Predict the 3D structure of the following.
Amino acid sequence: MCKNVVILGAGMVGRAMAMDLSQDHKVISADRDANALKSLANKPNLSTQIADLSDPKVVLRVIDQADIVIGAVPGFMGYQTLKTVIEAGKDIVDISFFSEDPFELDELAKAQGVVAVMDAGVAPGMSNVILGYHNTSMEISDFSCYVGGLPQERTWPYEYKAPFSPIDVIAEYTRTSHLVEAGKLIEKPALSEPELINYPGVGTLEAFNTDGLRSLIKTMHIPNMKEKTLRYPGHIELMRVLRETGFFGEQEIQVGDQRIRPLDLTTQLLFPKWKLGEQEAEFTLMQVTIKGLENDQPVEYKYDLLDRYDEATKTSSMARTTGYTCTALTRLVLDSHYQHHGISPPEYVGAVPNCFQIILGHLAARGVHYRVTRTGA
């Protein structure tokens, strides 16, 4: 049955989701940037609205007729947007990577009878779904996720382009990382514990700690869990220099007769160099490893993803891997396969019978493939 879907945010990922969901639903894509909405004009089942989504009153107006909402705003707007949608009594699937605790909205969502799936991207997102699925049939001892999105062409000096909100990338370099070691929650600085890892078809990348476990720390009682971000070698050192010099600082400093935040200056300088071209070749790489006991026997599952820019549809791999995971979860809610009221991290969805298989099938139909390797008894 055709439903009304409102997507808040028309960035690279938001636009890919709008095109995907408009195949079988009526979609409204809203953003304050008219240029971001241009590529969605005159598409079947798809309309656009110019809207300042930082204003809750505007959000309420845009989502008034929605059967479900997708949150795809930058992280600094994510929590308030999620709260506004829940207060309106609308189901929501969200990919905003905000720092606030979403479980603070759990009681509100339950009281409103709202299904609210958060962190519905690739990682966090699909990595959580995989873990939630295996957690139903295994006694898991170890979980790790290595993930990154990178341009195919390495351009000096940063050899990096941001396929999503660049301000959220900088937050990954400043936010304290949380890991679980021997059953204890451990805090480590972002960009710490670098590793060099060779990936077939890609080459050598460096991995470092970031704060990607998020909800898993609360929902999964697993002795060892970590998440690391992947970049080309040398990126860690560049970001450490900027961070330790104070370029990512959020407190105002005096410069001449003005007061400015170093972060604001840094973003103005960095973002043009980090801007990913609309048709620039890039790839997304993720490896999820799960170890433990299955039927009392030691076993290891390894999920590998290597997805590249789609020349045929002109869609980035990050938009595909993040966006199509989100649209899969959205369809699960619309089709009543997933109906849990309250805040739902993706691991909750993975634990529901058949949901994992439906998501994998949805992704495979769109050319996003996870290769699974099982070793052990």
